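The data are quoted verbatim here:
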Amino acid sequence: MGRFIARRFGQMLIVLIGATVVLFVCLFVLPGDPIGSLAGGENAHDPVVVAELRERYGLGQPFHEQYLNYVGRLLSGDLGEDYVQRREVSEILAPKLLNTAQLALAAIVINIVVGVPVGVLAAVRKYSVWDVSATFVSTLAIGFPTFVIGFLLQKFFVVELGWFPLLSTGGIESLVLPAVTLAIVDAALVARLMRGTMLEVLRADYIKTAIAKGLPPRTVLFKHVLRNSIIPVVTYLGISLGLLMGGALIAEAIFNWDGVGLALVTAVRQQNNPVVLGVVTYGIAVFVVLSLLVDLLCAALDPRIRES
């Protein structure tokens, strides 16, 4: 297990370095100059102002120097200064990151609480009314785009019933609908994945042997079937959480949730590179760390993974 952790940790560092290089190259070669929006108005054509801003933000340096400076600041926890508000990027993003984390975790909890039990019951009661109904509803849910689900929930529960506020207040009542919007499609996918993997495991020879030995059905289900079936679901949930932590733009836009998704779109429009770098670097780091944790959890569930 120690060698497995060391190997995965080394791979994580390589991915982080490679991702930051690609990100920085993309921003470096994109057309446009942030100095225009940074200077603003007539100052955008003043060579003295432009030169001073390039010197202040290091925009006149070669690519490799800008990248090394970026990495050096990143290692010390400095994400740079926002071009527009002239504030520290970490100070601006901190509350937005917290909001996005709350939304992502709430959506994942709904995925687990709804998707896993539905998939288990559908597999155990294969071809029953429950199985057919769960398969039909999950297929229908997967076919709906997220923005359609969000608008329908907003129309029914906010406009018609008035159960939730139209604009986000930051409280739990504002978290419910965007979390459900994000969770519906993923919960349906989790249910389908759980059902499929359980049916495959139920057909395995070692499950037939366990049943033939006279083990109680509950023991066979939870100790053998569920433990081996849950691994693909854990992997999917880890990837889903990583994507959601990077910013759920559609749900944030529909329900006016002040998260990193909206901050990223605004920063791209303004060519506000420090904020873009901060948000995307955060998303990459969260995704890579969650992937590492998922690998470790899967290795704990199935020791054969450690040797692969």
